[in-house]
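Final report, results section. Input specification for complex C-07:
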Amino acid sequence: MAEKNDFEPNIVAFLCNWCSYAGADLAGTSRIQYPSNVRVIRVMCSGRVNPLFIMNALQQGADGVLISGCHPGDCHYMQGNYYARRRFNLMRNFLEHLGVEPQRVRMSWVSASEGAKWKEVIEEVREGVKEVGPMDQFKRRQLNW
Amino acid sequence: MVDLTKLREMAKEVISREDVRELIGYRPGTYGFRVRPAFVTGPDDADDLVFTPACVNNLASYIVLEEKLPVKRGEEPDLRKVAVMVKGCDSRALLQQMEEKAYPRERILVLGIPCTGVVDMAKVQARFPDVLEVGEIALEGEKLVLSAGGTKEEVPKEELLADKCTRCRYPTPLVYDELLDAEVERFADDDYADVAEMEKRSAADKWAYWEEKFNRCIRCYSCRNVCPMCYCEDCVLLRLQPQWMRRSVDLSENTAYHISRAYHLAGRCIQCGECQRVCPVDIPLMELNRKFSKDVLELYDYEPGTDVENPPLLSTFKVEDREDFIM
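Structure output:
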């Protein structure tokens, strides 16, 4: 068990430009300490996140994936996060069906003013992924030539 | 069962019409009771059309498979209809294609076959080896009669019926111009018990199951090619930039392929079971598709291929969609 708890996961986070990215930025400028496991990828909207992004991130070495966007009704593009919500729900259920633990693929709504919530979200995702350990289902093999 | 003389007469009448270019149906294969698709362009060819419980193919695929060549200068495009014979399940493929505006309704002429079920060739092969190449098959009441080399075998229909037929809820085509027989009553129901069973297993269990299946995949892409819904001109798996899945045959890339294939059918799969039927290494692809079908029905109360007026599932949303999974 001790070994498992030492494990620090890689988390890829897709943040929407208008809310979640600004929220994470606010956490930084307000000097809120949050786990540094997360690698942020900024997208213009959570609706931009193709479900294949999740698959691809897991394949390329992420242990967890987080998608974060504006709260429903607050989307800069009016509806993007609603579409994202549908797509993500199906993808998450499907990956779970294949045997990818649901703790690995998460979605959250974080607005630009929620720096503190961002910290909580990241801590929760990190805890969840730590619990299930490294992603070893279909990670791409790294060949050392 | 469909009356063969009636079927052929109807086919002849349809293909003789001015505005019909081609008729896609079934004809006997070279050996035994296998059938193959027939592409009829004149009334004379219509004589060997058949419909038997061995007509497993989904002919709706051919409508979107046809390559649309550019029209030569000075020539008019051929806008005549394509007539197609469809069973109940196949008619849903047509509906879903039209729902996605793949082609307008007036481009096709649908000959509906009220279907009492087709056989699963693998089941026949397992039960009666060698029969496929020499025998004949017919449906008599609730019994399937297989005759080969002078001997006759009667088998209850349920034993050899394809899985999709044992839970078929739409035996009569949902869309048709001409119906070739009297409507068939719905004889089965689908409770997604097999999917629910799988869902109960632990994550490690599930992955162990799928790991073995995906490891077998040889990436022949038959499942994609045969699928009536896989008709994108620019398929994601052929893209090189970005290259979503590499072409090498290993577990990681195979899994990526199967995830993308299944996901692209989310809310579109009409469960004709063709992908699983053609799979040379027997990967239970319908289990992936049925997971989506179940979710889509339970979460969004949506069933693909049942109503042309329905907007495609993932290009719409409802404000009150579930979001209990969101942090």
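The two ends of chain B are 55 Å apart (CA to CA). The first strand of chain B starts at residue 20 and ends at 28. This concludes the modelling results for the funded period.
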